[in-house]
């Protein structure tokens, strides 16, 4: 049985219940949570907020609402695991807007390509999680997207080294995960190719004019970048718009259920209800 989140007098909440409730109300994907499950999430998120140091940069002010928005989403992937998977870092850095990062890439011919990328989030092994507030703010969210879930799933992925789309798992489970992840990734890449083939030649695929074409996809097109990004993008959808995963990638959906240890809110049931065998 869940213990009520504020029933432990020895623990003083870092963020008040009213702030947690107000923030959760801006996240429709939490509507299916029972009162007990909501208490569990608030309790874990409050522990997260107590353990992590939130730093605003370029004049951005860290408020309880900012802490709550980040902590609630960060704790969804670890709701059954606890905070242990996040022990490798202490700082969450928040920018007031998207930030610029230089990139370097060596192609198959050994040529180095330098570029500048505008990012809404970044995660480093053993280092901080960096987020851009406009893409975190729940009031500005879009269905199926959560940069916070995305970056913190990268943290889970990096627990055994560089992000590769496979979190730490026993050998047998790892082999099955790799097989199913690769199959879903290839299926999505084929979907993306089919959509891009329908975009008229007079429309720039990188422009907003192409958005309606990409909207046909079950996931954001960024998922086709590589297996690590596919894992992170698919996880965003699993928690915030689970129908997209369940319908397009049923095997992947079932695998995520087992890994994250819960059922998403497909039928508006309690995501933390006992699994039906």
Radius of gyration: 19 Å
Average residue pLDDT: 85
CATH superfamily: Collagenase (Catalytic Domain)
CATH class: Alpha Beta
Task: Describe, in plain words, how this protein is organized in 3D.
The protein has 277 residues and is an alpha/beta fold. The protein has 9 helices and 6 strands; from the N terminus they run ααβαβββββαααααα. Helix 3 (64-75) links the parallel strand 1 (53-56) and strand 2 (91-95). The chain is globular and about 55 Å long. The relative contact order is 0.12. Mean pLDDT is 85; it is low at 1-5, 265-269 and 273-277.
Short structural summary:
By secondary structure, the chain is an alpha/beta fold.
Sum up the structure in keywords.
single chain, 277 residues, alpha/beta, Collagenase (Catalytic Domain), 4-stranded mixed beta sheet, two-stranded antiparallel sheet, 6 strands, 12% strand, disordered C terminus
What is the topological layout?
Layout: H1 17-24, H2 35-51, E1 53-56, H3 64-75, E2 91-95, E3 99-106, E4 112-119, E5 121-123, E6 129-132, H4 147-157, H5 171-197, H6 211-214, H7 227-240, H8 242-248, H9 250-260
Parallel strand pairs: 1-2, 2-6
Antiparallel strand pairs: 3-4, 5-6
Helix pairs in contact: 1-3, 2-3, 3-4, 4-7, 7-8, 8-9
């Amino acid at each position: 049985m869940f213990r009520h989140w504020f029933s432990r007098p020895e623990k003083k909440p870092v963020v008040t219940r009213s702030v947690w409730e107000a923030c959760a109300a801006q996240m429709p994907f939490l509507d299916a949570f029972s009162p007990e499950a909501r208490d569990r999430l608030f309790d874990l998120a409050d522990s997260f907020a107590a353990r992590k140091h939130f730093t605003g940069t370029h004049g951005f002010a860290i408020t309880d609402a900012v802490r709550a928005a980040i902590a609630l989403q960060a704790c969804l992937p670890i709701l059954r695991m606890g905070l242990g998977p996040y022990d490798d870092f202490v700082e969450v850095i928040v920018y007031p807007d998207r930030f610029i990062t230089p990139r370097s890439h060596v192609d198959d011919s050994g040529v180095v390509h330098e570029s500048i990328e505008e990012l809404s989030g970044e995660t480093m092994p053993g280092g901080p999680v960096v987020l851009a507030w406009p893409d975190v703010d729940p009031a500005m969210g879009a269905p199926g997207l959560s940069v916070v879930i995305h970056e913190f799933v990268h943290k889970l992925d990096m627990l055994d080294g560089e992000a590769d789309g496979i979190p730490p798992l026993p050998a047998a489970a790892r082999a099955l995960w790799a097989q199913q992840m690769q199959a879903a990734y290839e299926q999505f890449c084929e979907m993306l190719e089919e959509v891009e083939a329908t975009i008229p030649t007079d429309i720039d695929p990188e422009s907003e004019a192409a958005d309606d074409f990409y909207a046909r996809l079950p996931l954001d097109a960024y998922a086709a970048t590589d297996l690590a990004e596919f894992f992170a993008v698919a996880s965003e959808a699993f928690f915030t718009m689970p129908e997209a995963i369940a319908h397009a990638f049923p095997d992947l959906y079932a695998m995520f259920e087992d890994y994250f240890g819960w059922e998403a809110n497909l039928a508006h049931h309690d995501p933390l209800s006992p699994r039906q065998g």
